[in-house]
Amino acid sequence: MRHLGILALAVFILLPLVQAILLSFTATLPTDTVAEGAIGLINYRNVLAAPELRAAMVNSLIYVVLNVALCITIGLPAAYALARYRFTGDRHFLLMILVFRVTPPVVLSLPIFILFSHFALVNSPVGIALVHCLFNMPVAIWVLESFIRAVPREFDETAYLDGHSRASFFFRHLIPQIAPGIGVAAFFCFIFSWVEVVFARILTVTGGKPITMAIQAMFSFQTDIGMVMAMTCLSLVPGVAMIWFVRNHLARGFTLRA
Amino acid sequence: MRPHDNRAWFLVLPALTLLALVGALPLLAVINYGFHDIFTLSDVYWVGPQWFADILQSDRFLASLGRSLLFSTLALGIQVPLGIGVALLLLSYGKRAVWGLMLVALPLVVPWNMIPMFWLGLIEPRTGLLGPGLAAIGFDWKFTGWHTWALILVVDTWHWLGLVVVLAYAGLSAIPPAYTQAAAIDGASRWAVFRFLQLPKIAGALAIVLLLRFIDSFMIYTEAFAINAGGPDDATRFLTLELGEEIKGFSYGQAAARATLYFLIVLAVVWAFVAATREREA
Fold it and tell me: Domains in chain A, ordered, with CATH?
């Protein structure tokens, strides 16, 4: 009975993925050399041979990595402050990050576009990395805060008594101690940024297209759906790798402090 | 108890600055635009609260609001119990549960615009794995309203179940086994253990799930638009689809007023939620 439930769940989750993977290995647009329905790596070869698709993968990787780095480096001190101290306005800060986390991107897309075009941040991975902090910074702060709070306060105090400065305590003691938390925070930031489409679309008008928009652009009057699926399957690889890296810490999840 | 020290603000300052720049500033701009008629960026006229009055008095807005509320209710009603159920199921597998967590996390890494494509491919009547079967029983998501609803709900559940499961599992696995063992010795039923021990313990973890899932489903756009663009006959015309239409139609003033209203709804929900959470903790 138990196994049956898991089996049903696996079928439900995997079915669309199986369909996509099957299609990605099938030639869906007949050419002179390949018949429709032929099985092979033709779609993957086409994807890797297309310079704009390769560029899109690089663009996506750049802004996602940049976003994760920003969220962790800026989120870590904030998370530490929230985990260890009370200060005037701390609850308001928590309320603010919660509000920004849940504000729908479509609400802010227009002014962000106007603002960013003033600072030449349109068509640049930096712009997307910055704006994705809006929903990723709160998640990073929540995850890191819950991991820091699990570390007893005596841990900090011993390090300070040993003569460590705050900076050296952060890098030599705290970061190694909460490494799994940094992994989990990076995981959530990575996936939320990788899959996001609203900001990624409006901030890339003529260039710097991310992987999501490159896939969108492959739909045309005569879409090579096999190639679309090959590109999509490739786009899943980094995310699946991330899941694998944090699998043993995924169950820590994140809880909200409000 | 954590000491009170306002120097902690220095640690929060970088995050606050960044969020002010990419969040607060655009938000103020949206609210300001909402009171203007915008032809081009250099051709802007003050119209006062006219757009707000127009939107609030239109039947279409109220109908969309109702649809979005219904959609959120259904999505939460399906995904939260199902997610908790799956988390409980995985819990009984001990260490092997990690494979289940990885499985349910898979849809979370799929680019949002591809999720509807996956499902439309799956139910394509000729070539999809499920298509011929569904066509045979008369499933028609394009022209039958409640079929479109069912499809969007299934797709949304597929997409987000993983988040519910991961966070519910995180809460459940943090309960010391001694608690459940003690309850078992006392002869508590499976339901009693869940209702009076596990559910209260994971309330904190569930709170964030409820909030995230409520807002995200309330403001669903990418999937709903790609599947049927609000159709058939406006049956799945949710709040965000109206906003999207106005932005695409270059009615920036109206779009900004609408965006402001949506933000206020979100703000009200978050505020009510936080007030409820703090009351529970106190």
Answer: 51-252 (1.10.3720.10)
